Each structure stands twice: as structure tokens, then as C-alpha cells.
Amino acid sequence: MNESELVKRMLEGQTGFTKHLYELYAPKMLGVCYRYANSHEEAEDFLQEAFITIFRKLDQWKGDGELGHG
Q: How many domains does the chain contain in total?
């Protein structure tokens, strides 16, 4: 499934796709969070805050770039 279809299904409220998006991007994002954090717990907090922001603003994604890049 491509990113546009995944986002579309999430915005429609279909279940399971939020978890799929998280599992797809969390490992790479956590690696970035470690660069800025002073501890494992702080990195996980950064990751959680990032996903909260992503899920709140997902409807603003225009599909003109990949979610995992930029």
C-alpha cells in the first residue's frame, strides 16, 4: 500500500492503519530522536510527541512528497 492510500484510510477512520504508519516509521524516527535526547526515555518522549503532531496534522499532507523524507 502506498502512503497516499494509507493516509486516506486513516483519515476515513479505518482501523489498524494508524498502527501500520507508526510501525513503518517509528524505528527510523527513534534513531533521529536519540541524536537529540539525553536518555532513552527522553527519546521515546520525543517520538511520542512527534507522532501526536503527525496524527493531528495528517489531513494537511498534500501527498506531494513522501512522508518518510524531507
A: 1
